[in-house]
Amino acid sequence: MYIGVDYYPEHWPKERWATDARLMKKAGFNVVRLAEFDWVNIEPADGQFNFEMWDEALGVLRSQGIHAILCTPTAVMPAWVAAKHPETLAMQKDGTRIVWGVRKNNCFSSGTYRFLSQRVTRAMAGHFAETPNVIGWQTDNEFGSPECFCDSCRKSFQHWLRAKYGTLAELNRAWGTHFWGHRVQSWEEITLPVDRGSHNPGACLDWQRHFSWLNVRFQREQVQILREVCPKHFVTHNFMGLYQELDYYDLARDLDFVSWDNYPVWGPPETRYRASMAADLMRGLKRKNFWIMEQTAGPCGWGTFGRNVRPGELRSVAYQQLAHGADGQLWFRWRTCTAGREQYWHGLLGHDGKALRRYEEAAQVATEYRRLEKELAGTTVKADVAIVYDYQSLWATRIQPAFAKNDYVGAVGRYYDALLRAGVNVDMVNTDADLSAYRSVLAPRLYVLPDELAEKLEAYVRAGGTLLGDGRLGVKDATGLCHARTLPGRLSECLGIEIPEYEALPDETSYGVTGRGRMEGRFAAIHYADWTTPRRAEALAKFDEWHVDAYAAVTRNAFGKGAAWYVGTVFKEPSFYDLLIRELLKDAGVAPEIVPPEGVEVSVRSAGRKRVAFLVNHTEEEKTVSLPRRMTDLLTGASGLREVRLGRHGVAVLK
Ligand code: GLA
Ligand code: ZN
Asked: What separation in Å is there between the alpha carbon of 405 and the centre of ligand 1?
């Protein structure tokens, strides 16, 4: 297992390097990530390369048995690139170019920038291909910005559309340009939809896809070189969890595995559902374990900073990711930097270079991970429940949310959190995933629903699956046009409902909802309401208000060998979602092994018959978890346990 830190030898005098490497080794670290922002030192002048400093630093690290992941350094262009080729700087909406001096400031369609990127990648790859302690590469750094509105990007967009649609007639149809007289008569007439809120929604969706594609292509050009020149090395990238600008499934395709940057410590201690959800998505991108390339090491911020990790918290943050499938882990950063914009993004060592409490805790984690290594080898999370996580629906929702409080991640999160509270592992999967392996599939906010996908979901239920859909399901086709059908369109039969009318609810409005039978209870509906008419479905909850009391808020339809649930509103109470998930899991025949107390998270990694259960206490109270059978705590060695006691931020790893 690779455990280590993000290291910047270029920030410190050479004389310090040996001390750093020694301290890393003492902590039990065996890997560092290097050089993602050091283009100017690697290529100080056009086409002239210099690797002396890096050779020396790698040598020092190697003497302590520390491996290295190198980065293509294209996240920051050297000043000479900007001066010589100003067109490589991204153009902002107002028509001015980004002022050089930040990072992530390049245009991704610029031929010059792509050429320079490939050249520096090839030079680095060639130089380090045989360096003994180099094991792999990170492409660039956190792809996803900036959006660029330059002429080159406009031409690129026009070409991309031409390749996609073939004819102008098809483009005009797909975007529905008969509206507002927006029909275009030549490809050159196509402009950039600079304002997501008022341009044609189809154009906005394609612009987002094009931006994503530009990043994917840029990365692919680097990956091809790395594969050719460094066949022994892996290639990864540091993703940003629930970041929304790119289709992460596409970005992941060319890589060996996904890595991501996890900074979940900001406000008061909380159950870190989003960090779990992000981890499950990161695992879902390639259906494969992932690494943490940057992990919170202390207070974070560029101007002001957040709170410090409390004793035990740095460890629980790490274990949460291990539990969800992290196979490698690096803390960001090694030593807090005395210079630059990130002086306050704190590391394991202080400005003074002294090993802090945080260093000791990271070292403890490294030692424990070593102890677990054998038990975890080959294991991953295997889930009975999947959530369809779809960037097309996410983007379409951002372009036209339909109701003010509609945010895709938040909507998915309501179900995700309830599943986590129930002690159930979840896979986050793309729309093209094979669903047959899952007992239950949740497809929240599946706004964009091409017919093939609707048919696939219907077939899934017919064959015995338990499906859940909710508000705005299937409103749009793949190009952003509304289907000319009564909602939920192609899924009407499967869900056993029709939704001829619907509405957004203003902030001050909520509807009472009365649930009966399996959904017994009183709840409050907020933000949005489908006026759902059950056809064959059973209404499990109905609205109370006189004008909507004929309509169902929650329905369930027995269909084929399975069941299809529909939730046509947003519920205020998390307890609603707990009840819903409980009933859904009953339908699906999924029974979690360990039901955690509030604030404690359970996750299971398994391989064949081997099962390792993780418990993470996110709270600062002691929690007791009862176990389904006698288990052994792999960290303490205690065996025959029928229950475990977890202290503040405590963790247990059980077999
Ligand atoms: C990101 C980047 C790092 C660093 C941290 C802190 O995750 O990848 O280079 O900037 O944020 O800001
Ligand atoms: Zn551009």
From this structure: 29
The answer to whether 255 touches 236, Cβ cutoff 8 Å, is: yes
User: Catalytic amino acids?
Assistant: 142, 294
Do the Cβ atoms of 599 and 616 come closer than 8 Å? no
Q: Is the CB of 6 under 6 A from ligand 1?
A: no
Of 462, 415, 411, 410, which is closest to residue 436 (Cα–Cα)?
Answer: 462
DSSP secondary-structure letter at 99?
Answer: P
Q: What is the 3-state secondary structure (H, E, C) of 59-81?
A: HHHHHCCCEEEEECCCCCCCHHH
User: Looking at the whole model, is its pTM more than 0.70?
Assistant: yes
The 10s digit of each residue's pLDDT in 511-526 is 999 999 999 999 999 9
141 lines ligand 1 (CB under 6 A): yes
| Choice from 39, 71, 103, 141 to test ligand 1 binding pocket (greatest atom count within 8 A of CB) | 141
Which sign does the torsion angle of CA 622, 371, 375, 629 carry? negative
How far, in Å, is the centroid of ligand 2 from the Cα of 81? Answer: 15
Question: Residue 299: what pLDDT?
Answer: 97
Nearest bound ligand to the CA of residue 91: 2
Average pLDDT value for residue range 404-415? 97
Distance between CA atoms of residues 519 and 539, nearest Å: 10
How does pLDDT run across 216-233, given as a tens digit for each residue?
999 999 999 999 999 999
Phi, psi of 264 (to 5 degrees): -95, 0
Percentage of the chain lying above the pLDDT 90 cut: 100
Index of the ligand 1 atom closest to the CA of residue 302: 12
In this structure, which ligand is nearest to the CA of 218?
2
Q: What is the pLDDT of residue 171?
A: 98
Closest CA to 652 of 181, 627, 344: 627
Atom number of ligand 1 nearest to Cα 240: 7
**Beta carbons of 479 and 174 less than 8 angstroms apart:** yes
For the segment 262-267, the average pLDDT, to the nearest whole number, is 95
Any ligand 1 atom below 6 A from CB of 294: yes
pLDDT band at 313 (very low <50, low <70, confident <90, very high): very high
CA distance 109 to 192: 14
Letter string b/e over residues 350-361, b meaning 16 or more CB atoms within 10 A of that residue's CB: eeeeebbebbeb
Closest ligand to C-alpha of residue 73 is: 1
409: helix, strand or coil: helix
Q: Is 142 in the pocket of ligand 1 (CB under 6 A)?
A: yes
Candidate of 7, 292, 294, 336 to mutate for ligand 1, largest count of ligand atoms within 8 Å of Cβ: 294
